[in-house]
Amino acid sequence: MIAIIDYGAGNIKSLQFALDKFHLESELTTDPQVIRDARSIILPGVGAFKDAMDALSELNLVTVLKQEVNDGKPILGICLGMQLFYEQGFEDGSWEGLGFLKGSVNRITDTVKVPHMGWNTLTAHQESPLLKTIADNPYVYFVHSYAVGGNFEADTLVASAQYGGTIPAIVKKRNIVGMQFHPEKSGTTGIQLLKNYGELI
Amino acid sequence: MLAKRIIPCLDVDKGRVVKGRKFQNIQDVADPVELAKRYNEAGADELVFYDITASNEDRDIFLDVVENVAREIAIPFTVGGGIRTVEDIHKVLRSGADKVSINSAAVSNPEIIKKAALKFGSQCIVLSIDAKEVAENSWQVYINGGRKNTGIDAIEWAKRGEQLGAGEIVINAIDADGEKDGYNIALTKAIADVVNIPIVASGGAGTIQHFADVLKEGAADAALAASVFHYEEISIPELKDYLESDAITVRSENEWK
């Protein structure tokens, strides 16, 4: 069972429906015990960086997430969920993230339209089981105004997109996987990416 | 590279799609879920559902539709129509919609855009503007389904919407709507030039060339249409092939084959 952290008001039902498509059992939860018992955690993305961190704190989930991730439990962060994995977020201020990965989250340059909204292509930076049977340069659906940068570790970059610069799109370090786009909204490519993740856990 | 988007729009009344009856090879053409699947398979990049149900008690039917669409298709979709409060927005997002489009309610209460953007994030708040030309290159915002002139300048309203936190603007040209003479390029471009958020052009699609025109000259990021898709006057794969041959980046065909 995969624990999907239900800590806000966004559309997380679609994520669960996507997992249902290949019979990966999941549960929307904020219960630390359910999270501990799960074989994997998915941290979806809702709202703003600070609000999301505040919500996780109020639900007393920061500690349990850190423990589980340090103990090696596979975790997938989607959109803002991936951004929270980093040390610091600069969305309307400067806020501390979960710190699983090195780097910070910064606003996309105003030389392009913000939010980065729509279907963009991925470029692979390394071979990865996450990209198994995925076509070259597939389109996936992005919707975000902030992106990972700072002292980001280049060797964690699995795939990127180009939008006013290089946007880290899939990252992986040990048991930690992040996807900046929405796999649950990225058609058959997105479903395959989730399935590939499911095979790693 | 970021692709230009093609967005079919479906009007839903009491849980059923209005004007979808010419579809072939589909058993229930009025079922929003069936139509959504069909558009998804044809390569639509996004969908928009407008709830045109008049009475409040029928709104729950619409929420069921939203949930069923989310269950069946894995592409983004926007919900509009009858959205008045932050609670309304919460409900449709929780049911599985990705974005919510706000029109008349934003004019009477602009703070709803701000509140919703702060609560749910700008990326899911779409400001929908119905605009009508009142003098040459001057457009005003109409509400209540295009019946009432607010006297507000459409370009200024678009700028205000961006400041309030809208993450996208749908600009519907009332004069062009239903005429099939092409999108209003001047209006679309005038708005695209002054805001730095994505613009969806709406109203007037009749031919494949109209899409190319508004995506190029109109500087739109996406083009929305209803009847040309409903009545199968334009097929999405053909449309995308044409746009691609015209050097417009679209999500490629092998993605959904």
UniProtKB/TrEMBL annotation, chain A:
Entry's localization field: Cytoplasm
Catalytic activity annotation: 5-[(5-phospho-1-deoxy-D-ribulos-1-ylimino)methylamino]-1-(5-phospho-beta-D-ribosyl)imidazole-4-carboxamide + L-glutamine = D-erythro-1-(imidazol-4-yl)glycerol 3-phosphate + 5-amino-1-(5-phospho-beta-D-ribosyl)imidazole-4-carboxamide + L-glutamate + H(+); L-glutamine + H2O = L-glutamate + NH4(+)
Matching SUPFAM superfamilies: Class I glutamine amidotransferase-like
Keyword terms of this UniProt record: Amino-acid biosynthesis, Cytoplasm, Glutamine amidotransferase, Histidine biosynthesis, Hydrolase, Lyase
GO molecular function: glutaminase activity; imidazoleglycerol-phosphate synthase activity; lyase activity
Pfam families cross-referenced by the UniProt entry: GATase
GO cellular component annotations of the record: cytoplasm
Entry annotated with the keyword Cell wall biogenesis/degradation: no
Pathway participation: Amino-acid biosynthesis; L-histidine biosynthesis; L-histidine from 5-phospho-alpha-D-ribose 1-diphosphate: step 5/9
Domain called Glutamine amidotransferase: residue spans: 4-195
Oligomeric form and interacting partners: Heterodimer of HisH and HisF.
Function (record text): IGPS catalyzes the conversion of PRFAR and glutamine to IGP, AICAR and glutamate. The HisH subunit catalyzes the hydrolysis of glutamine to glutamate and ammonia as part of the synthesis of IGP and AICAR. The resulting ammonia molecule is channeled to the active site of HisF.
Protein name per its UniProtKB record: Imidazole glycerol phosphate synthase subunit HisH
Species this protein is from: Oceanobacillus arenosus
From TrEMBL, chain B:
A GO biological process held by the record: L-histidine biosynthetic process
Record-level Gene Ontology MF annotations: FMN binding; imidazoleglycerol-phosphate synthase activity; lyase activity; oxidoreductase activity, acting on NAD(P)H
Subcellular location: Cytoplasm
Keyword vocabulary terms for this entry: Amino-acid biosynthesis, Cytoplasm, Histidine biosynthesis, Lyase
Chief location: cytoplasm
SUPFAM superfamilies cross-referenced by the UniProt entry: Ribulose-phoshate binding barrel
Domain Flavodoxin-like as annotated: residue spans: 197-257
Its EC number(s): 4.3.2.10
GO CC, alphabetical: cytoplasm
Catalytic reactions on record: 5-[(5-phospho-1-deoxy-D-ribulos-1-ylimino)methylamino]-1-(5-phospho-beta-D-ribosyl)imidazole-4-carboxamide + L-glutamine = D-erythro-1-(imidazol-4-yl)glycerol 3-phosphate + 5-amino-1-(5-phospho-beta-D-ribosyl)imidazole-4-carboxamide + L-glutamate + H(+)
Pathway(s) where this gene product acts: Amino-acid biosynthesis; L-histidine biosynthesis; L-histidine from 5-phospho-alpha-D-ribose 1-diphosphate: step 5/9
This protein's record includes keyword Lyase: yes
Family: Belongs to the HisA/HisF family.
Physiological role: IGPS catalyzes the conversion of PRFAR and glutamine to IGP, AICAR and glutamate. The HisF subunit catalyzes the cyclization activity that produces IGP and AICAR from PRFAR using the ammonia provided by the HisH subunit.
UniProt protein name: Imidazole glycerol phosphate synthase subunit HisF
